[in-house]
Structures are given as structure tokens and as C-alpha cells.
Amino acid sequence: MLHQKIPRQDHHYISALTNHSEKSESILIIDDEQDICRLLQLSLVRHGYQVRYVNSLSEGLKCLKDQKPDILFLDINLPDGSGLDALPGIKKQCPNLPVITISAYDTGPERQQALATGASYFLAKPFSVKNLDELINNIKS
């Protein structure tokens, strides 16, 4: 086993322990709440993913252009824009990218809009590690 190091820039990275010959899947988290990002990151690394997070929509959109993740966690309400508004463009750019929208506002219409505009899943905050594990197992299967 070899720990893969990813260069640190303005983004926060943790990578999983992986076999040198294997390439683990990557996840991008776009959320302005540091605690949520860290919880997601630590939980997802346990599943073998390389995880990075950014705290603004503009940073996230730049990361999507530069490096294509295998899964995206997208907060709906960000300080510099709406994840819901950005979602159709993200799906146009990356049509096969599974997008999990996350929000503290779990209203029926917001959930429906997220799923109708291309989200694969909607994860309501606060969520438990068990909820996250179930979601990741659904994505993997």
C-alpha cells in the first residue's frame, strides 16, 4: 500500500490508502460549511475515494473544468451562487457525473427541483454517517 499525495493548492485534499497499481475514484465536494466538508471527506476516504473540497461555487466550477471527479457533492445554497442554478450547466459539461445535492433546506419543491435538473440523489443536512454509507453503497452498486 502506498499513500498517494496530491499537491495542495487552495483546495483541501485527503486521499485514501491505495494499492500503487489501482486508481481510486475521486470525489469533489462543493460546500461552504467546513464541518460538513470534513465529515464527508473523512467518511468517503474510508470507502477508498480520493476526496477534495472547495468552499465556493466558483472554485468548484473551476475544479470541474480542470479535473473530472467521479462523483460530485453539491451544496444548494452557496455564498457566491446557487447549486441548483449551476446544476444544469454541470450536467451539460459532465452528463454522466453522479451529483448528490446537499442542503439544510429539505423542502419538497427544492428536493424535486434538484432531482429534476439532474441530481442523482438529495442528501438533507444534518445527515448521519450511516445515511452517507448507505448512499455511497447505492452509488457503488
From TrEMBL:
Alphabetical UniProt keywords: Phosphoprotein
Species for this entry: Chitinophaga costaii
Modified residues (4-aspartylphosphate): D75
Keyword presence, Phosphoprotein: yes
Protein name: Response regulator receiver domain-containing protein
Pfam families to which the protein is assigned, alphabetical: Response_reg (PF00072)
Residue ranges crossing the lipid bilayer per the database entry: none
InterPro entries (alphabetical): Bact_response_regulator, CheY-like_superfamily, Sig_transdc_resp-reg_receiver
Listed GO biological process terms: phosphorelay signal transduction system
Response regulatory domain mapped to chain residues: 26-140
